[in-house]
């Protein structure tokens, strides 16, 4: 079958390409996983385009993989069986903003920064911040979260309604405009985080929030991981409304100082952000400083101006950049687990010990307000020793998390990289998930090989 020619009968010719360069760009994400070329790349411009592609793919048993900007970290968008990659860059319209309802309806190719630029005109913002300028569709597919989830929640908490094209081309609209409902099964929550294995998003309705009157950022340095975690727990226990609560270890600060020629204290460091009004934030920051001092913090700095806040957060925001550009020839492998808060300090110190005992360069950081943390490991994907050591550390972190009631992935998703842990984490519930997949995608054409591996 001439797949390109057949699809061009369904769509315009310029919407379908088998150009080698375009296919190569869609063969990988930002992870270390092995690339695989799709046979063709399709650029839909409407729900009807997606329906036509899915009906064609279902009829011929051809795999389909949705693609946003390729910023995922577990191989989600790699087309393991070739087939069709659906790139949503042309479905990037903001369809409706309802400021009185604190809602917005968008197409899946809208990026986070694009959405927030438009929402700012109404005094609103979309809070989920995974770091990358990901698409809303991609964020919904992986249930992305990030630095602000400690206050605003994850993507699943923001999604009110979806328009989904199923494997056979049928269109459903689970959810609605009401902010809550007790009617029937919660299907939006099922599709969010399904990584393109159950359906293709063509519209997404989101909750949005008012831009806070004042934003205050703070950086606090501690003599070790344990006192930093204790201070974070004390701040949360005191009811201080923290919008971001990030931890970066001393190893990471050292690399940032080396690369950017900065002079931050090379200690375990908390980065905090508070949203509210000016008077309240000053009290919150003073109270947080007092609680931090009780745990040995000897360097607490806070700022309110946007430029000053950006400088204060520099070591956190530029962490990966400092390692990638400071260690040329290496790629990043970023692990991702989440544990109950009571197990966090022990888990972070365990991660630090693993890196200290390894020949790999790396660091530990995380969104410690919700127990989600990462180990950044610098690897050469062509070096067998590097890959085996990184896999060993990743496996040890996951085992430790699962032993303490945690999860193998807090925000990156399963993709290809976390398949091996699904049975241990979910036990018999994994069979229920497989049953849902079989019901909605009996031919196994939607992003095959992800979450469950080979069927």
From TrEMBL:
<dbReference type="Pfam" id="PF01565">
    <property type="entry name" value="FAD_binding_4"/>
</dbReference>
<dbReference type="InterPro" id="IPR016166">
    <property type="entry name" value="FAD-bd_PCMH"/>
</dbReference>
<keyword id="KW-0809">Transit peptide</keyword>
<dbReference type="InterPro" id="IPR036318">
    <property type="entry name" value="FAD-bd_PCMH-like_sf"/>
</dbReference>
<keyword id="KW-0274">FAD</keyword>
<dbReference type="GO" id="GO:0004458">
    <property type="term" value="F:D-lactate dehydrogenase (cytochrome) activity"/>
</dbReference>
<feature type="domain" description="FAD-binding PCMH-type">
    <location>
        <begin position="34"/>
        <end position="211"/>
    </location>
</feature>
<dbReference type="Pfam" id="PF02913">
    <property type="entry name" value="FAD-oxidase_C"/>
</dbReference>
<dbReference type="InterPro" id="IPR004113">
    <property type="entry name" value="FAD-bd_oxidored_4_C"/>
</dbReference>
<dbReference type="InterPro" id="IPR006094">
    <property type="entry name" value="Oxid_FAD_bind_N"/>
</dbReference>
<dbReference type="GO" id="GO:1903457">
    <property type="term" value="P:lactate catabolic process"/>
</dbReference>
<dbReference type="GO" id="GO:0071949">
    <property type="term" value="F:FAD binding"/>
</dbReference>
<protein>
    <recommendedName>
        <fullName>D-lactate dehydrogenase (cytochrome)</fullName>
        <ecNumber>1.1.2.4</ecNumber>
    </recommendedName>
</protein>
<dbReference type="InterPro" id="IPR016164">
    <property type="entry name" value="FAD-linked_Oxase-like_C"/>
</dbReference>
<keyword id="KW-0560">Oxidoreductase</keyword>
<dbReference type="InterPro" id="IPR016171">
    <property type="entry name" value="Vanillyl_alc_oxidase_C-sub2"/>
</dbReference>
<dbReference type="GO" id="GO:0008720">
    <property type="term" value="F:D-lactate dehydrogenase (NAD+) activity"/>
</dbReference>
<comment type="similarity">
    <text>Belongs to the FAD-binding oxidoreductase/transferase type 4 family.</text>
</comment>
<dbReference type="InterPro" id="IPR016169">
    <property type="entry name" value="FAD-bd_PCMH_sub2"/>
</dbReference>
<keyword id="KW-0285">Flavoprotein</keyword>
